[in-house]
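Hi R.,

Here's the chain you asked about this morning:
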Amino acid sequence: MRRNRIVNDFLRSDRDMPIHVIYQQLIGTPTEYDDMIAIFSQVKDDYAQRIAMEYFYANGFFSELKVILEKNKNSSSRTNQKMARIYQILYERKTNNKKRATNPAKYLQVVNRMKIPENEYELHILRDLLHIYCYFDMNQYGKMGTYNTHIKKLLQHIKDPLLHHLFAMRLDETLFIYHWKRNELILTRRYGFKLLKEIKNPYKKIDIHNLLAQSYLFDSYDQAYYHVTEAIALAEELHYERGIYGLRNYTLPFIAAYHGRTDGITTEDKAEQAHIALAENNPTLCVRILEGFENLTPFQQYYLGKAKQNKMLLRTAYQRFVEERDDYFYARLPLEELNTLDQ
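And here is the predicted structure, written out as tokens:
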């Protein structure tokens, strides 16, 4: 095949041709991924291996990423060693099949101890991205904006077109989340649909569908349901247990309960069981479940406030969404209920 000949010629050559040039010849072809994996699995140049780590991670090729990580942990290049350590964290975070994320604060401690020279822009971008992902896991959404701005500036220094493209897509992902939490839904969906068109990584598609589903909570049950079921189908196809658990026990029952469409909906999560009870006009059960909790999240405080029709609880939930999480999207939940009670 012509494409295979291009790859074979590249691999047999002295590789004077930059990888981004061969990538432009392969992009969109039926064998693009097989060919790029073949190339990246054999390159020995330090910079090419750094691009390989990002390409494998960005496209969800975690088996290939794991192999190249082991090579780069023992690289003679200190930069490659550090990048491998960050990609190891990213790999663990993404492939962890536990029901909940591994402690993100621990990841931040590891990466913050790294000494990174000012001109190692790729490492700074990776560290900033990891901060964004960890703050997302910790529900501290307001902290994401500073890192987004910094990454935009750092991208100007990334001269390789392929690496720039891969990092730029990752920035789009973080901006997608940031604008969602700012309740800027036109921008949120613009980034979301752009990413669905551009990204091939099925794990990332699951995340995007999941967040798009939530972004439609207040506007359209049908749109929200469509995106969450797309995410579930992808997660089941990949046997991605953590994704399946989260979607079936959190996102789906949450959307169903908000819209009062709970027939056939079950969840192992006690808080969402309370939410379903509330949707099914059983506030007594909702209160009984939630009053057994030692500490309430802003969501759970909103459920309890709605069940009791308690304005003080609802106002506190609103303040916590805004002040603790910088989550202006979900702050609409208690605000909406307060407006209903005031009518």
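One quick note: The mean pLDDT is 92.

Cheers,
M.
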